[in-house]
Amino acid sequence: MTEDPPTYELFAIRYAMRDAKRTEHFIGGDPHDAPMPMDYFVWVAKCADRSVVIDAGFTAEIAAQRKRVYLRCPIDALALVGVNAKDIDDVVLTHLHYDHVGNFHKFPKARFHLQEPEMHYATGRYMKYEKLNHSFEVEDVVGIVRLNYKGRVAFHDGSAQVAPGITLHPAPGHSAGLQFVRVHTQRGWVVLASDVTHFYENMETNRPFTTAFHIGQMLEGFDKLRAAAPTPQHIVPGHDPLVMQRYPAPRPDLEGIVARLDVPPTE
Fold first, then answer.
1. Helix (H, G, I), strand (E, B) or coil at 90
2. Of 88, 146, 181, 262, which alpha carbon lies 20 to 30 A from 234's?
3. How far is the C-alpha of 178 from the C-alpha of 224, rounded, in Å?
4. CATH numbers and ranges of domains, the chain
């Protein structure tokens, strides 16, 4: 008889944001030139036996270079949900874009879970094109190469399990080795989409985000999210400010900073 997977608490930590327009978020633009700001998150899955961090955000230095509003260090902010980076054994990197990998060096003992095609992409022939390489920071990529030489990168080539109740699923398109994460919670399996869908609206309208390696695969990624989730309400996009509105804070002082994703959204 198969045992049920553990039940995790699941949190989104908002660490940065930027002002943007709707036209910046949809391939082909948008008929409305209205504001559509973007939030930046890291995620934490936590149960009695372990905590797993999903993505590592970017640093204050990169925020200044890229003109992002840096609200807090995402790694220091792990303490808000009772987690210390020094104790983390497993970090999932959904992909190697600058806003998902930049603080890898702040996890002194963690093993990093990455789809192998992402490393090939980030170090391969397509990186000579500025349109594609602008989403990467060279030192981040080199840093992960160094960690691999130390035996601290777990490469996956397809779906995989990080731990009981936490699974990885490739969905390339935005980046060649992008993956999303399923986490078993008290409300069932929650799908952390990361950049498979930046906003709810990308998936709901089948209009991919503007940073693209393969548009067809991006569209297929929306289908993969739907297939992996019990309902659309179990899918959490990677950059949408609506996440902080639809999910409650763990406690009042964390309103707008941390959202609980293991409880149902308000709509």
1. strand
2. 88
3. 12
4. 9-260 (3.60.15.10)
Tokens representing residue 146 in the block: 């160094």
The residues, any chain, with a CB within 8 Å of residue 207's CB and separated by 6 or more, are 26, 27, 28, 201
**What is the pLDDT at residue 1?**
46
Collect contacts of 82-91 with beta carbons under 8 A, ≥24 apart.
82/46, 83/44, 83/46, 83/51, 83/53, 85/53, 85/110, 87/51, 88/51, 88/52, 88/53, 89/50, 90/50, 90/52, 90/53, 90/162, 90/163, 91/52, 91/53, 91/54, 91/55, 91/56
Residue 212 CA to residue 165 CA, distance in Å, equals 30
Percent of the chain at pLDDT exceeding 70: 99
Q: How far apart are CA 23 and CA 73, in angstroms?
A: 29
Please determine, for residue 16, whether its predicted confidence score (pLDDT) is greater than 70.
yes
pTM of the model: 0.96
Q: pLDDT at position 2, please?
A: 61
**Helix/strand/coil for 202:** helix
Judged against a pLDDT cut of 50, whether residue 7 lies above it is answered with yes
Contacts for 124 with CB less than 8 Å, ≥ 6 apart = none
